[in-house]
Amino acid sequence: MRHWFVRMTLMEDCAKRVPKIVSAAAINEGVPPDRLARQIAAGRAVLPFNPVHSPEPRAIGEGLRVKVNVNIGTSNDHADLKEELQKAKVAIKFGADAIMDLSTGGDLDSIRRRIIKEVRLPIGTVPIYQAGMETARRSAVVDMTEDDLFGAIEKHARDGVDFMTVHCGVTKESVELLSRSKRITDVVSRGGSFLTAWILHHGEENPLYSNYDYLLEMAREHEFALSLGDGLRPGCLADATDAPQLRELMTLGECVERARAAGVQAMVEGPGHVPMHQIAANVAIEKSICKGAPFYVLGPLVTDIAPGYDHITGAIGGAIAAMAGADFLCYVTPAEHLSLPTVEDVKVGTIASVIAAHAADVTRGIGFERDLAMAKARKALDWEGQFACSLDPENARAVRARRRPAEDEVCSMCGDLCAIKMVRDELKAKRGNAKRPGEKRGKANR
Length: 446
Ligand code: SF4
Fold this sequence. Notes:
single chain; alpha/beta; 8-stranded parallel β-barrel; 10 strands; 8% strand; globular
């Protein structure tokens, strides 16, 4: 039984009142604060907020603006903290709502602490990476102990991590199902592969599942949100929506309910690689099994044949998923499946996901004013107005400047055949506000 002096979690607090941080997030979103507090209390929205970090509030969930996460982080082959901080800066500039540090190379503690210090957005991590990597430096990933795993989680929590991916649904049962399945790509999640290998090697239950109550206690104590990882997500279209994926999702649904009962915020991670016609069903299944928990999708990538362009395959899938009700998009860069991304890859990947999120927002009646302002600026041939409405004004300005039109008012695409100008001038003439413009223009407009 809980004692009266145990601190209330943000989720529990929301059931009683509107905490300041929730109110600030609601004002940012343009939604009523009491409604957002009710959604958080019910687990239909999350607000990752570790008081040690105290990030800018970003609420994720039903009826809210679709959020975008950007992964950064070192690898064993390339560990340059300055470059990772530069990636975070670029991601924030282009509209990221959260940053995940997925570092696996270099001094992981100091990299994470520096990122938490420098980044004011919610920070997520996958602590099993650190537990696995540090064990691998001594022996092999499968020698990782429960203490290694929970020790990493506690360290991240104490450092101020706001949300953590925990692959609680990779269980003996789902791994057994996987071993009997006809999957092509087996396991493509790094954390999922650590746990699958661990379960196969030891024949024991995933410690994140068998000690889930302990994990919830830690999340309560340090106020971090759980991002229930999909360690068995499909890694190709042919594996999408198969039995291991759905078995894992059922376990995650159970984990969501237990988290809610413990006053711990939880969201659910989703696939992966999914053909377009299965995406809406995947979202509906998650929302049903996980009782409306926020859905955090990793892409999904809608085709497997575009390495080098997976920011596009991911953005197509993200837009469809968000339109169907997904709440949080994990960006994908052009380097996906190929290498650790560069700063430029992060920029391009962030913009692709932000476009997907915004396109879905418009279908929810959110953010349309900006599209309307752009349309009006286009009609007025107001180039400064168009740049001001752009997601990337510098790029828009540079693209216009590289092929200047002969006539400054239009652009070099149609030049003196500018459709907007021609019809505008003719309409003006018809309304008697101007001389017939055709009289003083060349043949082209006749
Ligand atoms: S010249 Fe063509 S592309 Fe350019 S603003 Fe006019 S109508 Fe649009």
